[in-house]
Design brief:
alpha+beta
Length: 152
């Protein structure tokens, strides 16, 4: 029996249209001076230690939760096609835990943004959902929408 290409049980997808041009959304998503203002769910702040958005580059940052807990994060950039697409592994400082593909589609003065987070297994995806990844992502991208209003 052929293997199925259906990854819906291993994937979390965020899709949103931002009221900002693609180049502006790209900058807000890839430049530290902007990321520090919106990255993370409500109540989180982020400290960047390294940020090199290019194929083979990495970003290391710590997310600080409102409860005082620190969350180390690292991205391993595999594909960077400005201002259309980013592909990276995302995890803690040690290893990637999931793969992310982000696309930025120009729609006049707006941008259609899609982030696809792909886990190795359905169980890993379910655990992230249980942990609050869906609501955390919604809050994060709402923070980006609000931040973009000030950039325009």
């Amino acid at each position: 029996m052929p293997e199925s290409n259906d990854v819906s049980d291993r994937e979390i997808v965020f899709e949103r249209v931002f009221d900002a041009p693609r180049e502006l959304v790209w900058r807000a998503f890839t430049e530290v001076e902007h990321l520090v203002h919106w990255w993370g769910p409500n109540g989180f702040t982020t400290t960047y230690h390294e940020h090199d958005v290019r194929p083979g580059g990495i970003a290391k940052f710590t997310m600080h939760g409102p409860d005082g807990k620190d969350w180390p994060n690292k991205m391993w950039f595999r594909e960077v096609v400005k201002p259309e697409r980013l592909v990276y592994g995302h995890g803690d400082f040690e290893r990637p835990h999931f793969d992310v593909t982000v696309t930025f589609e120009a729609r006049g003065k707006q941008t259609r943004f899609v982030s696809r987070i792909l886990f190795a297994t359905a169980a890993e995806c379910a655990a992230k959902k249980e942990f609050g990844a869906i609501e955390g992502g919604r809050q994060t991208y709402e923070r980006l929408a609000q931040y973009l209003k000030g950039m325009s």
